[in-house]
Amino acid sequence: MILGFTGTRRDPTADQKRFIRRNLFNATELHHGCCEGSDYASHLCAVDLDIPTIWLHPPTDEKLMVPLSKLLTRGGIHALSAKPYHARNRDIVDACELLIATPDGPRRPNSGTWYTVDYARANKVTVVVCLPGGIIDNDYST
To answer: CA distances (Å), 57 to each of 28, 49, 84, 133, in order?
Structure first.
């Protein structure tokens, strides 16, 4: 299973961390955006579970990015060329079979996580969202 990940720049809640681990358990490949917070948590979980291939989609704006030297810790981890946030988010969706998302709350304007969820749904990619309290919804639209 090729899994894409999008999430808040904050650390995920305990419920969201369990959600990430459950979904990564059967993944063969992970695509994420290299930012601090939830992206980094998904990366550490994937490394812990020994996911064979991890694709890093770094943003061109590095101020919230985890340094690649901290992410490229073993074989099978590949960094792609940096792109603006929305472009790299679309690349993550375009590469995956399932997108999992851990937003920091309900939908709000200018949220990269929600932009990515909406893009995935518009392109018929299966999406599962886990809100901070652990509510899981595969069709969250409010």
So the answer is: 17, 20, 10, 27
Strands (E), the chain: 2-7, 29-32, 53-56, 77-79, 98-102, 126-130, 136-137
pLDDT at 139: 61
Upper half-sphere CA count for residue 6 (Cβ side, 13 Å): 29
Whether the model clears a pTM of 0.85, i.e. scores above it, the answer is: yes
Assess contact for 32 and 66: CB atoms under 8 A. no
Helix (H) or strand (E) holding 21: helix 14-24
Q: Can you give the CATH number for the domain in which 102 is found?
A: 3.40.50.450
Cα–Cα dist 24/32, whole Å? 12
Q: Are 6 and 99 in contact (CB under 8 A)?
A: yes
58-76 per-position pLDDT tens digit: 999 999 999 999 999 999 9
The whole domain housing 127 covers: 2-137
Q: Does a structural domain hold residue 142? A: no
Residue 101 lies in a domain: yes
- Name the domain count of the chain: 1
Cβ atoms within 10 Å, residue 80: 15
Can you name the residues that pair with 55 across neighbouring β-strands?
A: 31, 78
